[in-house]
Specification:
The complex is a heterodimer.
Chain A lengths: L2 H7 L3 H15 L1 E11 L9 E10 L4 H11 L19 E4 L2 E4 L5 H5 L4 E5 L6 E3 L2 E2 L2 H9 L9 H5 L9 H5 L12 H5 L1 H5 L5 H12 L7 H8 L13 H5 L6 H16 L13 H8 L1
Parallel strand pairs in A: 1-5
Antiparallel strand pairs in A: 1-2, 3-4, 3-5, 6-7
Helix pairs in contact in A: 5-10, 10-13
Chain B lengths: L2 H27 L3 H7 L1 H30 L3 H29 L4
The chains are: A alpha+beta, B mainly alpha.
The complex binds iron/sulfur cluster (SF4) (2 copies) and FE2/S2 (inorganic) cluster.
One iron/sulfur cluster binds next to helix 9, helix 12 and helix 13 of chain A.
């Protein structure tokens, strides 16, 4: 871009000034908030306890920002898991004032509301790894159990692909919302069935099973049926929909599970949702390139 | 049996309970069609036998589901299902016998 062009795109001085002022305003400390934090190291501690820290917070400060300040300046031993800091990796889900939320997406003042205390503890329904970090081993095992990948029977095409698999927009729309799952565990943590039935596959894994079972590129419907149609599978869902209520990505796993049940009943009567998609012939591929 | 079959029957029995329960109520209270059903003891008994079977299936399956959720250990799951099935069959047999005696079939 030439300097002349750059000038054209530059903000007018009064807008720039206003932007800077708004940004300063966002990060100016406005209130003192008390953080009540769950502390427990199962390898060392006999029982969990709570620790409290007070912090001046700004309007833009997220719970994760606050935790990193606490970890850096007040309690270096604090166990907290995070990575992307922008609601994409799903690592920082925790109980914030009793509700499953992403720490990096929740602003402190929003969580505190009219009060001045923010209580933080690890996700319910998960074993504790350390302090605010939950142990996701069984969660990921359940996810893996439903085979969350495309299953195909055409070995030759799989090993020597001749083109991409054909899929229309309508076919994509059937499972699109479930691809937004970031595996944060909030849904499983809110699920009342998972609270007592540790073997229950849970909303995340079941919604993902549905996502692959209706993907036209997939041919693994009958492979996954014995897994999800089991005593601790989708029929243990009572459709309280607490899972969908807390999902930070707007996924509706409860709906996925009900659709999965419908699919299983229809399969009983011989129905299959789709024929596995064919690969687009190389000719079409070449035409597309042109 | 697949869990979907068990649960499909659970929903079917819920509908059956409503239908046979209604027939039972009619038989005992309605002077028109009810009196006809009551007069035909085989029909009355058949309806009650289906009502009892549906009711017990629905109720015992409900108990099984609760137990499976409360005792999630996988090795217990099959035992719970078998135990509930046996208790259900015995209860049905006793219920049928009571019905037969009450209606003069035995
Ligand atoms: S469905 Fe939503 S709440 Fe559940 S793991 Fe995926 S993103 Fe998290
Ligand atoms: S809808 Fe089903 S999976 Fe979701 S919270 Fe309720 S019981 Fe759990
Ligand atoms: S740090 Fe990645 S979602 Fe919060």
């Amino acid at each position: 871009m030439s300097s002349e062009e750059a000038k054209e795109y530059a903000l007018p001085p009064e807008v720039l000034e206003e932007t800077i002022r708004a940004s300063e305003e966002l990060w100016k400390p406005v209130r003192k908030i008390k953080f009540r934090i769950y502390k427990y190291n199962p390898r060392k501690d006999y029982a969990p306890h709570w620790e409290e820290h007070e912090l001046e917070v700004s309007r833009g400060m997220t719970v994760l920002d606050a935790l990193l300040v606490i970890k850096g300046e007040m309690d270096h031993s604090l166990g907290v898991r995070y990575s992307c800091r922008m609601g994409l990796c799903g690592s920082c889900a925790m109980m914030i004032n009793g509700k499953q939320m992403l720490a990096c997406q929740t602003r402190v003042l929003e969580a505190a509301g009219d009060g001045d205390v923010v209580e933080l503890r690890p996700l319910d329904n998960f074993p504790v790894e350390r302090d605010l970090a939950a142990d996701f081993t069984s969660f990921f095992e359940k996810h893996k159990a439903v085979k969350p990948w495309i299953i195909r029977n055409d070995e030759v095409e799989l090993n020597n692909p001749t083109g991409p698999y054909k899929q229309t927009v309508d076919e994509y729309a059937r499972y699109y919302q479930f691809t937004d799952c970031i595996k944060c565990g909030a849904c499983l943590s809110a699920c009342p069935t998972a609270a007592t039935d540790y073997e229950y596959l849970g909303p995340q894994a079941l919604a993902q099973a549905y996502r692959y079972m209706v993907d036209t590129r997939d041919d693994g419907l009958d492979v996954r049926i014995p897994i999800v149609d089991s005593e601790h599978g989708c029929w243990r869902c009572h459709f309280a929909a607490s899972c969908s209520d807390v999902c930070p990505r707007g996924v509706d796993p409860a709906q996925g599970i009900q659709l999965l049940k419908k699919l299983l009943i229809k399969r009983k009567f011989g129905f299959k949702p789709h024929k596995p998609a064919e690969a687009l012939p190389a000719k079409v591929k070449a035409e597309r390139k042109e | 049996m697949r869990e979907s079959t068990v649960m499909f029957l659970h929903y079917i029995t819920a509908i059956l309970i409503a239908i046979t329960g209604l027939i039972h109520l009619l038989a005992n209270n309605d002077p028109g069609i009810g009196a006809v059903i009551k007069a035909n003891s085989a029909l009355y008994f058949g309806n009650m036998a289906i009502f009892l079977a549906a009711l017990l299936y629905h109720a015992f399956n409900g108990v099984r589901v609760i137990l499976i959720e409360m005792v999630p250990d996988k090795c217990w799951t099959k035992w719970i299902s078998w135990a509930v099935l046996i208790v259900g069959i015995v209860t049905y047999a006793v219920g049928l016998q009571v019905l037969m005696v009450a209606l003069g079939f035995a």
